[in-house]
Amino acid sequence: MTDFILQTGATIGILGGGQLGRMLSVAASRLGFKTHIFEPGANPPAGDVAAQVTTAGYDDLGALTDFASAVDVITYEFENIPTEALNHLEKLRPIRPGREALRVSQDRITEKDFLRDLGLQTAPYMAVDTAEDLDRAIAAIGTPAILKTRRFGYDGKGQARLKSPADAANALADMAGAPAILEGFVDFSHEVSVIGARSASGQVSCFDPGENVHRDGILHTTTVPANLTASQRMDAVLLTANILNALEYVGVMGVELFVTPQGLIVNEIAPRVHNSGHWTQNGCVIDQFEQHIRAVAGWPLGDGTRHADVEMLNLIGDDMDKVPEISAEGNAALHLYGKAEVKAGRKMGHVNRIKKSAG
Amino acid sequence: MTDFILQTGATIGILGGGQLGRMLSVAASRLGFKTHIFEPGANPPAGDVAAQVTTAGYDDLGALTDFASAVDVITYEFENIPTEALNHLEKLRPIRPGREALRVSQDRITEKDFLRDLGLQTAPYMAVDTAEDLDRAIAAIGTPAILKTRRFGYDGKGQARLKSPADAANALADMAGAPAILEGFVDFSHEVSVIGARSASGQVSCFDPGENVHRDGILHTTTVPANLTASQRMDAVLLTANILNALEYVGVMGVELFVTPQGLIVNEIAPRVHNSGHWTQNGCVIDQFEQHIRAVAGWPLGDGTRHADVEMLNLIGDDMDKVPEISAEGNAALHLYGKAEVKAGRKMGHVNRIKKSAG
């Protein structure tokens, strides 16, 4: 991939038209870029703020070719893009972040092997393809443990908890024959995440770590500043920079970390803007979405210094009923995704509540 | 106009597709709304971030009907919309801000009469239709003075300065036969503006006044906080609220004020978001664009408290050459409008430089 710097009026192609693509489109517009969304589903949220939308499947090579021809660079809002589509697209236009980040993050075993090779701590893990594999993994790792599909998981989907070895058969059935990974239980006090960015020229910048609380496997709140010692905060940022540099990464990445007495344990990495970074929209001059667009466009990174204490609360399903009340709150910034249909478990929006200025 | 509250997924129609419409569209998306832009010119900047664009003239009643039918409420990014188009549209959908604000602000004489009737100070003025009118006006008001067209002026267009009575003929010729107004010279120390907002339920909120510097008749910088005493600041906010309430206004309005030893003199009002309010994008939790959309949608106003000191610098024409340098600055937020063609005097973007946190 040769170096390039996009000029005002250039077009950024985005694979995926959900809320992350929507907020990436808005950030792109702020820098004078157009966006073109590629999304199989009809009426994607990102389509409301994009110059162009292609509605087609990832197996439609003609549509992929037309899409690539119409854009200057390609990025994505989710990591589970079919490999064949990526192989086709990368012949036509640069893809940022690059293929290596996708290869590593699309498979939980590959990801954990990569992190271990960097000297980072992860939960104990073993690959599980068969009932015999699972018995061996339980014997080695113990319970409680979590069985996850190696690929295509998100928001707690494709996961089964094992309280004891007796749960093995049911958990394996939940995988529906897909290759899986058994992950040992990590005894952590809380979870934090770092939103890191790396520019095409190798400049690295991380946002202040946020502290995450999940409910039913879905992110509930992210709070900054996180409850971390100065040395933990430094560790979190340095290990994120380590990951970004090892992948020669270009763009924004989310790194989820468990905080334990034995140090920080990497839960998972996401090669994209991340729900736990939404607080940056109201806590920083440059947010994670613009930081990603800057990197993808070959620009220098912006100033992501945190200027306020923020709590980000996800609005999921019926939480939309609270919007009238939240809209009248002081120090609260609503971000709604324009999804017409409210469904249980569906991310409909979020609110950033500003607690106080950090200046 | 009956009361209504727009729900997520509703569509806001915007007359005008320039940078103000573009930033209004982005703010609308943040609250879950779609936008539909009506604009005679091709490829409007707002079209890049809108769900729909209608390209048609304001005399195309069929296009206006289709546009109105496709939206839930109509607003606008500029005040010089032809009256016939407004007459047609208001039969179909509510227009916010309302017709009275447009009637008053579309004609400089009507505007100044309105302000005087509210007990506010303006520059001395007289209507000028003929050479005889101009002679009488010069005799009454004196020189230096400024001759302006009564309607359709912006960014210093349609204006001629008179240093002495000898300039009368040339100045009148510049009006090209259009009805005009002679405005006396105001000896002011500096100009400030207040961005005020009023909700459909009558809630009023003003952003902190900004101090404006113009170059060649175009806004150059706005700086907050403005150089004002506490009582001047209070006067500025109260007179803006006075104007908003008198018009039963719904939306955001820009009020330009001259600061003089004799008090604040109203230069002009603009019934829309205003260039001198762009600093709010990086100085407040809720910016002027979202405040306008909230009002137009029937929502409560948001929290516009200023949390930082900001200098907004307009990027005009060749200022775009400075973008690479500005993009690497700390504490600087770029906002580019995606206009492909750079022209002298054309507003291409702006940068908000954060000076320090006001918290």
Automatic annotation (TrEMBL), chains A, B:
<dbReference type="InterPro" id="IPR011761">
    <property type="entry name" value="ATP-grasp"/>
</dbReference>
<dbReference type="GO" id="GO:0006189">
    <property type="term" value="P:'de novo' IMP biosynthetic process"/>
</dbReference>
<feature type="binding site">
    <location>
        <begin position="153"/>
        <end position="159"/>
    </location>
    <ligand>
        <name>ATP</name>
    </ligand>
</feature>
<feature type="domain" description="ATP-grasp">
    <location>
        <begin position="112"/>
        <end position="297"/>
    </location>
</feature>
<keyword id="KW-0067">ATP-binding</keyword>
<keyword id="KW-0658">Purine biosynthesis</keyword>
<dbReference type="GO" id="GO:0046872">
    <property type="term" value="F:metal ion binding"/>
</dbReference>
<dbReference type="Pfam" id="PF17769">
    <property type="entry name" value="PurK_C"/>
</dbReference>
<protein>
    <recommendedName>
        <fullName>N5-carboxyaminoimidazole ribonucleotide synthase</fullName>
        <ecNumber>6.3.4.18</ecNumber>
    </recommendedName>
</protein>
<comment type="function">
    <text>Catalyzes the ATP-dependent conversion of 5-aminoimidazole ribonucleotide (AIR) and HCO(3)(-) to N5-carboxyaminoimidazole ribonucleotide (N5-CAIR).</text>
</comment>
<feature type="binding site">
    <location>
        <position position="148"/>
    </location>
    <ligand>
        <name>ATP</name>
    </ligand>
</feature>
<comment type="subunit">
    <text>Homodimer.</text>
</comment>
<dbReference type="InterPro" id="IPR016185">
    <property type="entry name" value="PreATP-grasp_dom_sf"/>
</dbReference>
<dbReference type="Pfam" id="PF22660">
    <property type="entry name" value="RS_preATP-grasp-like"/>
</dbReference>
<keyword id="KW-0547">Nucleotide-binding</keyword>
<feature type="binding site">
    <location>
        <position position="191"/>
    </location>
    <ligand>
        <name>ATP</name>
    </ligand>
</feature>
<dbReference type="InterPro" id="IPR013815">
    <property type="entry name" value="ATP_grasp_subdomain_1"/>
</dbReference>
<dbReference type="InterPro" id="IPR040686">
    <property type="entry name" value="PurK_C"/>
</dbReference>
<feature type="binding site">
    <location>
        <position position="214"/>
    </location>
    <ligand>
        <name>ATP</name>
    </ligand>
</feature>
<feature type="binding site">
    <location>
        <begin position="183"/>
        <end position="186"/>
    </location>
    <ligand>
        <name>ATP</name>
    </ligand>
</feature>
<dbReference type="GO" id="GO:0004638">
    <property type="term" value="F:phosphoribosylaminoimidazole carboxylase activity"/>
</dbReference>
<keyword id="KW-0436">Ligase</keyword>
<dbReference type="GO" id="GO:0005829">
    <property type="term" value="C:cytosol"/>
</dbReference>
<feature type="binding site">
    <location>
        <begin position="267"/>
        <end position="268"/>
    </location>
    <ligand>
        <name>ATP</name>
    </ligand>
</feature>
<dbReference type="InterPro" id="IPR005875">
    <property type="entry name" value="PurK"/>
</dbReference>
<comment type="function">
    <text>Catalyzes the ATP-dependent conversion of 5-aminoimidazole ribonucleotide (AIR) and HCO(3)- to N5-carboxyaminoimidazole ribonucleotide (N5-CAIR).</text>
</comment>
<dbReference type="InterPro" id="IPR011054">
    <property type="entry name" value="Rudment_hybrid_motif"/>
</dbReference>
<dbReference type="InterPro" id="IPR054350">
    <property type="entry name" value="PurT/PurK_preATP-grasp"/>
</dbReference>
<dbReference type="GO" id="GO:0005524">
    <property type="term" value="F:ATP binding"/>
</dbReference>
<comment type="similarity">
    <text>Belongs to the PurK/PurT family.</text>
</comment>
<feature type="binding site">
    <location>
        <position position="108"/>
    </location>
    <ligand>
        <name>ATP</name>
    </ligand>
</feature>
<comment type="pathway">
    <text>Purine metabolism; IMP biosynthesis via de novo pathway; 5-amino-1-(5-phospho-D-ribosyl)imidazole-4-carboxylate from 5-amino-1-(5-phospho-D-ribosyl)imidazole (N5-CAIR route): step 1/2.</text>
</comment>
<dbReference type="Pfam" id="PF02222">
    <property type="entry name" value="ATP-grasp"/>
</dbReference>
<dbReference type="GO" id="GO:0034028">
    <property type="term" value="F:5-(carboxyamino)imidazole ribonucleotide synthase activity"/>
</dbReference>
<dbReference type="InterPro" id="IPR003135">
    <property type="entry name" value="ATP-grasp_carboxylate-amine"/>
</dbReference>
